[in-house]
Each structure stands twice: as structure tokens, then as C-alpha cells.
Amino acid sequence: MANSGQKVVLITGCSSGIGLRIAVTLAKDEKKRYHVIATMRDLKKKDKLVEAAGDTYGKTLMLLPLDVCSDESVKQCINNVKDRHIDILINNAGVGLLGPVESISIEEMKRVFETNFFGVVRMIKEVMPDMKKRRSGHIVVMSSVMGLQGVVFNDVYTASKFAMEGFCESMAVQLMKFNIRLSMIEPGPVHTEFETKMMEDVAKMEYPGADADTVRYFKDVYLPSSIDIFEAMGQTPEDIAKCTKKVIESSSPRFRNLTNSLYTPIVALKYADETGGLSVNTFYNLLFNFGPLMHITMSILKCLTCSCLRRRTISPN
User: Fold this and answer.
1) φ, ψ for residue 276 (rounded to 5)?
2) Would the CA dihedral through 274, 277, 282, 284 be positive or negative?
3) Helices (H), 43-192
4) 153 by DSSP, 3-state: which?
5) Helix H or strand E segment including 309
6) DSSP H or E segment with residue 294
7) Taking Cα atoms as reference points, which of 208, 185, 262 lies closest to residue 21?
8) What is the DSSP letter of 154?
9) Domains (ranges, CATH) in the chain?
10) Which has the closest alpha carbon to 248: 2, 23, 3?
11) Angle between helices 223-233 and 291-305 (to 10 degrees)
12) Is 57 helix (H, G, I), strand (E, B) or coil?
């Protein structure tokens, strides 16, 4: 139970990666300003979080089961919070999907949207009425740079993040009238166990329905380039947790928060040309015409940044 003066923070998707680090970072706040409710679909996967939380577990951090794809689970979770009072909701739960779109079933696509989009909508719908009554609250959504700029072979994942960005951009205007803030956190590549395993798995998979050239472009062109980008520009879950903490502690939190300054010019390409041709042609050339040059550039960038720029998080103030 939260102590007087503590803000109640509910976080989805805390079994690993970014969600785990955000939960632990807030629970270990030196001033003990937060009572963290860390959630996950299967509490059998709690061991990593409990270990990382240390002596904060049971004090400033507690666990609740939550499946963001279930209306009943979402309602039950919020009902288990004292007075249904949540000051800060951090929507972190998400799933990825990578590969040629011809080989991805509609059911697989629906599962991505069920978590990445409708899961966020369910959570916001459940906590928003109480926040409106109190005229107070902060909703944080873990988006992605792919919610701003499409990336080849990430078609469905990108679409789910675009949908969420549009939903939140619309909601933010209404929520301001009730003194509720809405913030998007937009990381680029992040080194997590999930991402590493996904990269390994997709390289071994067959892609029925996709032609041989497309599969070759995916495996021999896109995947090596993607690995180069991850190694040169990737951040850690700790970096994203620090960024998120800054956002919720800001007196005037931004709506959009790119966590990696190296991605600013990439996103800017899209808005520099209203026809869209500049960004599409740039990414095409980088991938298919200048692949070897891009590999060399990423290698140089990796050496030059020495993790400093890659770990640079935003400063909301």
C-alpha cells in the first residue's frame, strides 16, 4: 500500500527488458516518491524482477497479474488497486513481428495489434475515468521511433505503433482539459533479450508465401544492416528507464520524447518533404545501393560514440 505522499505507478509488461528496469528504477528512488505496481501476464516469470528489485520488493514495489489483451484481466487488476487510484500509468507491454509480410498470417498481425494497440487502449479506458474525476494523472506510452518512421520488413509492428501514436495524439488534447498529461516515449533500437532472440530466430526461419528474392533481401541485406544499427545505435533498458523517470518528474512533460538523439535527423527527413519521397528514397538507397558503405559508417559510428551518444537520454527540462 502506498504511503502518504507517494505516487502510485502502474507499469505493464514488467517480466523483463524495459518494463522491468522502469519498475526497479522507480522503486529504488532515493526519496521513495513512488509506490510501484509492476504487472505481467504470468507471475511465474517474476524471478528476474524480484531479484533486481532487491529489498524494495514488498515495500515500494508490489506485483499484480495483468493480461492487457483481456478486458476482464485489466478490470480485475485495477480493482485490486486501493480505491482504483493510479497517479501514473506506464503502458510498456508490447510484442514484435518481423519478416516479409507475405509470410505473415492475418491472425499473427491481429495478435500484434491486440497487444500493442488495443492493450494500450484498454488500460487507458480503465484508468481514465478516475483520473478525470480527480483532474490529475499522467499516462505514459512506450512507443517507438517506428511510430514516426516506417521501417522495411517491420511493416505490421510499425503499423501498430503508428496507430498508437495517432490515438494518443488525439487523446492528449482532450486529456489536457482534465489536467491529465499524456507522454510518448520513443526509443530506437534497445538491447533486450527479446530483441536478441527474435533476431536469431528470424534468421533461421522459412518464409512460405514470400518469393526467393524477397527472402534473400530480408536475410542477406536487411538483417545484417539491422544488426549493424543495433550495435552502433542501440540503447539499454536502463537508458529508457532513466528517460521515463525524467519525463514523469518533469514539471511540464513533453508529449513526444525521442530517447536517442542520433535518430532526430532520421525522423526529420520525413517532415522535410511533404511528398514523402525524400525519406522513402533515402532508406531505399541506404539499404539496397549503399549497403557496404552503411556497414562501414555504422562501424565508425560505433567506435566514435563509445556508448556516450547512444546512451544519451532526453532532458525534458
Assistant:
1) 85, -10
2) positive
3) 47-53, 71-79, 106-116, 118-134, 155-176
4) coil
5) none
6) helix 291-305
7) 185
8) -
9) 7-220+234-263 (3.40.50.720)
10) 23
11) 20
12) strand
CA distance 92 to 95: 10
DSSP E strand stretches across the chain: 7-11, 34-40, 61-65, 88-91, 137-142, 180-186, 256-258
27 in a labelled binding site: yes
> Exposed (0-12), middle (13-18) or buried (19+): which is 155, by Cβ within 10 Å?
middle
pLDDT in tens, 80-107: 999 999 999 999 999 999 999 999 999 9
Please tell me the distance from the alpha carbon of residue 21 to that of residue 191, in angstroms, as a whole number.
12
Whole-angstrom distance, CA of residue 269 vs CA of residue 276:
9
Q: Of 166, 167, 162, 163, which is closest to residue 149 (Cα–Cα)?
A: 162
Binding site annotation covers 152?
A: no
**Residue 14 assigned as binding residue:** yes
Taking only the tens place, the pLDDT of each residue in 239-290 is 999 999 999 999 999 999 999 988 888 888 888 889 999 989 988 888 888 7
38 in a labelled binding site:
yes
Residues labelled catalytic? 157
